[in-house]
Amino acid sequence: MSGLVNLVVEKAKKIHHWIDDYPKVKTDTVFDTFWVRSLLGVLLCFISFPLLIIPFIIYTLYEYYYGEKGIKNKKNIKKEQEGKPKEE
Predict the structure, then answer these.
(1) At what angle do helices 71-82 and 34-66 cross, to 10 degrees?
(2) Residue 5: pLDDT over 70
(3) Model confidence, pTM
(4) What keywords were assigned to this record (predicted)?
């Protein structure tokens, strides 16, 4: 068991040295600035928020027209009460 633990510890040390020896790369891109990242976050919010709300709007409109108490269903119920065939 200790042989396995020693093997894992040696591998971890090698990885640690490899990370320390890896040259530090400095990236100076536009996306590293605070303001650009903030604007990208705001744009993401403006894009993703409507995508979350649209299904609820569609469901609400569907229920309004075709639901149990919807407009289309009320017309069908009135026709059934009058003895006319159901409209589909």
Answers:
(1) 0
(2) yes
(3) 0.40
(4) Membrane, Receptor, Transmembrane, Transmembrane helix
